[in-house]
Amino acid sequence: MKFTLILVLSLLVGMPTTMKAALAECATGLPLEGTIWVETCDAKVQECVYAKKALYEYLKNMKDDDEVISVASISSPWRMYDSNMRILRVTELAELIKPNLEKSKKVLLLASWSGVAPHGKEKSLSDELSELLDGFPVTGMDGFLWLKNNGDFYTTKQAFTGSKGGPYKIKPGDDVMMPLTLGWFAYYEDHFAKEKDEDGLISAAVAWDVSMLCPDHALQSFEEIAATFSNPIAAYNAAIMRLDRGEEGDLDTATQLLMQASNSGDEKAKKLLLEISTK
Length: 279
What we know:
The protein is an alpha/beta fold.
């Protein structure tokens, strides 16, 4: 199995522990139902492993298949993210995959909800990728993605996810809910703002998109980070989200955000700014 691995691995420790429930509270157009409780590990009473670290190990345990290109990404139904918390555009992913298509038969998109079109989109991420690859078969996921320690995977479609607050840890060998490896950051957004923790705030913004399924909240957070810290990744992400949304005024605001990121030397922002200026 050929891997293009683009997972997020940042970790924060020492956060307060409280009981929380991840809420899919926004209009998604997705078949969400019920509640799932995710058992987290208490390091005070047992051996624990950070869920993100376990996720990497579980992916390594997947069965090899030279005819399948597997791509793993933290994602929402609307978009994927790379290891720097930057939105990975489907067009970029297509360019990365194209050189490997000749000896392959399928792309496996290991990204939550990548096989389902959400509210506001006509096509799923997997359909968009397949189209950019001239119809090459792409299989996406139909819900929140989970990984087992042997590399197997499955999905769930809960409307609520209950868990303990703080960094997501598991008992060795437990299943990992991929979006929750970032989802817990959303609960501490106010804490990160108070501490002026730029990295924590970006993680929280991504969490609102991939775990809470609330892109409007994520957009607002990215724009606040861009304004407060002049953060180019936050400005770039907000610009893409506005371009994807396409409401009145979004193009002008996206252009301003890309100019801000470009002025700080962000090459991807420069490239996207050139793209939209020539259309």
